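Dear colleague,

Thank you for sharing your sequence with our group. We've completed the structure prediction you requested, and as agreed, I am returning the results in plain text so they can be pasted directly into your records. Please verify that the sequence below matches your submission; if there's any discrepancy, let me know and we will rerun it promptly.
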Amino acid sequence: MRPKFFYGYVIIALCFINMVVMRGVNGAFGVYYLALLEDFAWSRSDGASIASINFLVYAFASPLVGLAFDRLGPRLLMPLGALLVGGGLVLSSFAGSLVGLYFSYGIITALGQGALGFVGHNALISFWFVRRRATAIGIASMGQGLGALVMVPLTQILISQVGWRWTFIVTGSLLLFVLVPANALLQRRTPQEVGQYPDGDADPSHKVSVPRHGGRSNGGRDWTLAEAARSFPFWSVTVGHLALGTALFMINTHAIAHFVTVGYEKLAASFYFGFIGFIRIGATILWGSVSDRLGRSKAYGVAVIVTALGVACMIAMTFNAPLWLVYLTIVLYGVGHSAGNPTYGAVIGDIFSGRKIGLIFGYLEISFGLGSALGAWLGGYLFDLTGSYAWPLAVCLICYVISGLAIHACARWHERDGVYPETKGSLGRTRRITTESNVISTEGRNPSQQFANASRACYEEKRGVTLYPRN
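Please find the predicted structure tokens below.
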């Protein structure tokens, strides 16, 4: 019997709210960046180095976050993350030098962002949703769009009215008084903790699930970190994450500065950047749904093409560029780049199932954090070197293409060489059985063997071959 209310929706709502604030904090650094440059007369590469330190700490803390998620669970980890981010922002308001901001924003805030970021949320959602994993991650990631839409312009308004120091205090207080108690009271690691099952299903002990085409859990295998690190998709995701992080945070850190450089007022530039977030609200859920239906590789391939067109338009923007070009840039880039989080989160969840999924997510996030640090610093360095953002944006184009090729390679591996080959075909005939690591097992004394048999049968039905005799 299906539960009247699936608690997974509460988990999605919490992840959404966390994403609103966390993406707002990340995106707002581009506004703080300009204010800090004016107050301290630093070079752009010096100012961007604050974000780079933040991303480096985030990167190297990610495995510890994954380990903490596996051992402590989200009910302890995520309130601690909110406490560190809030405290770090409040401390940043007292900083009077680069070193002070390196400590408060670069270290303290970054540790909290790791605990409240991609690793924990995507690992958590992978426990609660199986059939529509990318869609669920997409819904939670909509919060990133809303955070950019609301918090980036609001940060600019607050800085204009009360200065960047008080704005840090206001934002930090929001986390301390809202996110800390909400996560402490409402988070749960798995559906079993509230007597439910993933996707809100009834007792699945005798059930075969019917997924959407294009995404599935590799539920028959309980991956260890050592096994994952020896696999091709682990390193493919690592390279793709490095490229994606470089491109995303080169633009996130410098987009507002780019708009100002080509002749727009700071508030207008903040609004344009926020409008990218507004588009992301709908685009993220769109890409998650398309990924579940069409397949990870095809969906993300289309997204990369759209993103590349948006970045190319951004490069074409010169001083006093026509307004239609600005909005075309915003729409194309806003729609295209929104596919990154749901796609990478779903691909990792599809392949690396099991009890160590948080730790694996954490190690894979290292390269994303390193890319983010590189992108934030490299954008400022190349601008100081050339006096233009054209070259940094050209680097972004290349990085987005690399991220798309990495997803394509993972999808090919998953279909060809994965433990359980992907079964494509009509939605109604595609079958999958997952084990208790992601929730559903078949009737019988050996669920893992039952899963292997069923997966093999699906593959044989697709290929018209017999792999080896049944046990």
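Summary note from our side: The chain has one domain: 8-190+208-416.

Kind regards,
the structure core
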